[in-house]
Write a structure and sequence with these properties.
Pfam families: OEP (PF02321). By secondary structure, the chain is α+β, with helices and mostly antiparallel strands. 64% of the residues lie in helices and 9% in strands. The chain folds into 2 domains: 360 residues, Outer membrane efflux proteins (OEP) (Up-down Bundle); 86 residues, Outer membrane efflux proteins (OEP) (Single Sheet). Helix 6 packs antiparallel against helix 7, helix 6 packs antiparallel against helix 9 and helix 10 packs antiparallel against helix 11.
Amino acid sequence: MVLLSANKYRSVYAFLFLLLLSSCQVYAPTQRPKAPAHPVSFIGSADSTSVGDLTWKAFFSDADLERLIDTALANNLDVRIATQRIEMARATFDVNRAALLPAVNAAGSAGVERFGKYTMNGVGNYDTNLSDNIGTDRRIPNPTPDFFLGLRSSWEIDIWGKLKNRRKAAFVRFLASEQGRHLVKTSLVAEVARLYYGLIALDSELNIIRQNIALQERAVQLVDVQKAAGRVTELAVQQFLAQLLGTRSLEIQVQQQIVETENQLNRLLGRYPQPIPRSKTINDQELPATVAAGIPAQMLRRRPDIRQAELELEAAHIDVEVARLQFLPSLTLTPYVGLNSFRATTLFDPASLAAGVLGGLAAPVFNRRPLRANYNYSVAQSREALYRYQQRIQTGFSEVVTNLKGIDNYRQVADIQAKEVDALERAVSISNDLFRSGYASYLEVITAQRSVLNAELGFIRTRQAQYNSLIDLYRSLGGGWQ
């Protein structure tokens, strides 16, 4: 019989050992996939000089624009929101760092419990009270109060590095939030500059439209004289008048666009609507003769969204390791020290000082399915972060090459359009002279006036597109947040 009992206990111990052993099984560490290689140059050039290395004050030469960017960086609400995200990430890191230290709480408690006569505590307390060694003040009352005043602690010993990895992931995400603020700044600088150049382009368009209005008003006066002389009909007068009215309506539309652009700029500057100071026209601005993009390695190191995606990938990979270590047992210590007594009158007696510690090793057994699901979720997040990182790199290359080509192509378009404007201005002058002499019809004059207006507006818009490409190139190379 004794032998059977011993065998039974051995079986129980063996079962518990196997159960504990099975609970310690974990996944093998995951290998981070390598990102595919990227080109070593953007468009065949491998010059290490890059406009992305310039600060925005060195890149932009317009004093009015510089003041606007300064104001935006100081007051823009998106920048302030990004700053608070950094503070949140910093607080998360502090929380995870504190998890490595024991949590110590000051505790004070009071309770009461009545033990039945046929319970172990009830019988034990009754028997203890009958002992000659127990004085009156040490006899256990029933119901039995319990008073405690002291310190209690809980401390998980990081035997596998799980808590350190959580702290590391939180720190990496803190660094990623810093890059997020840099990304907001690069986008803000670019958007302020884009709106500013759009605004001065609209100013130039408005000036051109008003010049053409004056030209068309003189044409209406001329055709009235021609009608009085019997050389043209009322149809010609109405055609010239219709063209003048159409140009005047275009003037009002551009004025509204100027108001909208100013208000968009004011919103980026973190202020209510007010006039935007500008002292230069779009034609007064100087474009650099050559623009260097540098090499891709510089863009990868400088561009905030790529750096942020890289850090988020690093944090996601650490999360996978934390999820893997969740399968291992955790060791927790719960010590306490303080005054403990079943009488309030003796609570502060030095003899009431009590201390203890409890250590526990806990391993998941029946809750491994949620842990496995959490592990698979972390792996999927890590892969998503990798693909997002690759996507950011591809986007960066595409933006740089597009804007490099755009700067060159728009420069060629602007040169051609400038010649077109000169030719059409001469055509307007010639058509007016011929119309006075009776050698050209009024339709030829109207066509020449409409053509020169469209050409002049097209030239201004091409100039604006040149600056937009230059600004987008600067942003795509990671410039503007220094």
